[in-house]
Design goal:
This protein is an alpha+beta fold. It folds into 2 domains: about 130 residues, no CATH class; about 90 residues. It contains 5 helices and 10 strands; from the N terminus they run H-H-H-H-E-E-E-E-E-H-E-E-E-E-E. The strands form 2 sheets. Strands 1, 2, 3, 4 and 5 form a 5-stranded antiparallel beta sheet that branches. Strands 6, 7, 8, 9 and 10 form a 5-stranded antiparallel beta sheet that branches.
Length: about 230
């Protein structure tokens, strides 16, 4: 199983799930959500936080074939989005010790438009930043990297990777249809995404279906529908 990936969906359902709760429980959940949001927004205004986000994104961009070192982030854009993954927890002194969220920030990398995405995890040692693939991909970093491995195998089978030296990289991801929802059996519904990946100078659109079950999340790449853009 991939717990944090599940939290992404479960917490996004928190507001709707509050309805059947007792008023006291509902108020407690809402208070935790508001505290987490306040903490997040406070962090976003600090120079150290913005610098850490930028460094994380630069490290990702530098791993691509373009090795871009010219990244511009618009932290004050109306298109900035955040998504709470795990509610904030504090110790008896009021110090934040746990929690997680995902930041989505518009910007450019060497003049290419991006929707940069960074996962932020609160630990006792401070904030930890992990860049995830750009765009709207819904899985956690582990699920995303497993998906990329599957795509790479399919491209090799289709003989779309012409040189061994070609590096496969994700340049954008798109949610197709509705996000996953929690079903009566306790499992998440399947969801679909479209990934734009680049290799050997060509960008391919790759349709993917994610199918959660009791043992984890299966990844189904529609190999026959992969096409160059």
């Amino acid at each position: 199983m991939i717990p944090l990936g599940k939290h992404i969906i479960l917490l996004s359902l928190a507001l709707s799930a509050c309805a059947p709760l007792a008023a006291q429980d509902r108020d407690a959940v809402m208070e935790q959500i508001n505290l987490t949001k306040q903490f997040l927004l406070k962090q976003r205004l600090t120079p150290d936080y913005r610098s850490s986000i930028r460094e994380s994104i630069l490290a990702y961009e530098n791993s691509l074939d373009t090795h871009c070192k010219d990244v511009a982030l618009d932290f004050d854009s109306v298109d900035v989005r955040d998504r709470i993954l795990a509610l904030l927890e504090t110790d008896d002194k009021g110090t934040a010790v746990a929690g997680a969220w995902r930041e989505s920030i518009p910007g450019t990398a060497c003049n290419e438009k991006r929707k940069f995405t960074v996962q932020v995890v609160v630990t006792r040692q401070g904030l930890r930043f992990t860049t995830t693939f750009p765009g709207e991909a819904d899985g956690d970093p582990e699920l995303q990297h497993d998906t990329l491995k599957n795509i790479e195998m399919d491209l090799q089978i289709l003989r779309l990777v012409t040189r061994k030296s070609c590096h496969l990289e994700v340049i954008d991801t798109h949610l197709v249809g509705e996000r996953a929802t929690l079903q009566d059996n306790g499992l998440l519904s399947q969801w679909k995404e479209l990934w734009d990946v680049r290799t050997c100078g060509t960008v391919y659109a790759v349709p993917i279906t994610f199918i959660p079950d009791k043992s984890g999340t299966s990844i189904s790449v529609a190999a026959s529908a992969i096409h160059a853009e």
